[in-house]
């Protein structure tokens, strides 16, 4: 696939991402909740990408908070698969506005039922104690193959989507696990840990609220891969079933989603057909900007 075709497709995907994050206000309902409506990105999976709903929910909550207060954490549960053919309504409950913090509950609703329930907290910028875990030493993203380099020429719907339509460039330090047989941890001796560089496919406006919402979107892209890698599976393994169950994200410091971010990922546990993924997110200068945790249903085919 030619670079200009790939770049144009990814730029189109980025425009689509910005479109779905630009929610339409819908007034206030009878219970006093602020309402917004959002469209969906195309997905080859037949369901809405969970990161999209996370990002949209962050945008909806942010729209109801004083701009001086930035989102610093969110905790959400995925309750039902999203229908990509139907717009999503976001109902925001204003839980609290204190002296320094604000809290919001967001329900993402389709067909009269919530598909995601999330609480987010916002805080004014304040001084205080400051420390962070250091970033590991890893190869630069320019030295690693892109998704298009790895699977861009394959005639497979998921490969075409990964390489051409997703609005992010993803580069694995340990090697990608898109296709069966590509995981380097093929047995239980490997711990599944990985490092992944990620950035969106073009420049974003100078809006920290938008960059934080885009990070929420991106935080769902690879977070469960350590579980798959740990057990020698890949995204295209026949019979695999993976779905996000809950998601937590803490924004520690300002972030730019249009510059390279390093996701340092691990999986401390998997049991009961559930796997837990954790990630520390660093900017290119090595500053810890966020931490992510997600538990997902991970049903792998029997050998």
From TrEMBL:
GO terms for MF: fatty acyl-CoA hydrolase activity
Every Acyl-CoA thioesterase-like N-terminal HotDog domain range: 44-123
Keywords in alphabetical order: Hydrolase, Lipid metabolism
GO terms for biological process, alphabetical: acyl-CoA metabolic process; fatty acid catabolic process
Catalytic activity: a fatty acyl-CoA + H2O = a fatty acid + CoA + H(+)
Residues in Acyl-CoA thioesterase 2 C-terminal domain copies: 190-297
Listed InterPro entries: Acyl-CoA_hotdog (IPR042171), Acyl_CoA_thio (IPR003703), HotDog_dom_sf (IPR029069), TesB_ACOT8-like_N (IPR049449), TesB_C (IPR025652)
Protein origin, superkingdom: Bacteria
Gene3D superfamilies documented for this protein: Acyl-CoA thioesterase, double hotdog domain
Family to which this protein belongs: Belongs to the C/M/P thioester hydrolase family.
Subunit structure: Homotetramer.
Protein's name according to its UniProt entry: Acyl-CoA thioesterase 2
Source organism of the structure: Quadrisphaera granulorum
């Amino acid at each position: 696939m030619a670079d200009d075709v790939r770049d144009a497709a990814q730029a189109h995907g980025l425009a689509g991402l910005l479109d779905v994050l630009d929610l339409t206000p819908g007034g206030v309902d009878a219970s006093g909740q602020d309402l917004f409506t959002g469209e969906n990105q195309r997905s080859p999976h037949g369901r809405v990408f969970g990161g999209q709903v996370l990002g949209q929910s962050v945008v909806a909550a942010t729209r109801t908070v004083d701009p001086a207060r930035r989102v610093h954490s969110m905790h959400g549960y995925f309750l039902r698969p999203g229908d990509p053919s139907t717009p999503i309504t976001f109902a925001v409950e204003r839980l609290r506005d204190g002296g320094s913090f604000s809290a919001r509950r967001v329900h993402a609703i389709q067909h009269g039922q919530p598909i995601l329930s999330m609480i987010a907290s916002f805080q004014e910028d304040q001084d205080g104690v400051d420390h962070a875990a250091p970033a590991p030493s890893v190869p630069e993203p320019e030295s690693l193959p892109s998704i298009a380099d790895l699977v861009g020429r394959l005639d497979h719907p998921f490969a075409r989507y990964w390489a051409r339509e997703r609005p992010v460039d993803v580069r694995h330090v340990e090697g990608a696990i898109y296709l069966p047989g590509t995981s380097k941890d093929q047995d239980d001796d490997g711990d599944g840990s990985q490092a992944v560089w990620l950035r969106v496919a073009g420049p974003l406006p100078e809006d920290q609220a938008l960059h934080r919402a885009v990070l929420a979107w991106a935080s769902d892209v690879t977070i469960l891969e350590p579980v798959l890698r740990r057990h020698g599976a890949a995204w295209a393994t026949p019979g695999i079933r993976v779905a996000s169950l809950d998601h937590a994200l803490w924004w520690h410091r300002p972030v730019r989603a249009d510059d390279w971010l390093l996701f340092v990922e691990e999986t401390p546990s998997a049991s009961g057909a559930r796997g837990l993924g954790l990630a520390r997110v660093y900017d290119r200068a090595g500053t810890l900007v966020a931490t992510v945790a997600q538990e997902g249903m991970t049903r792998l085919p029997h050998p």
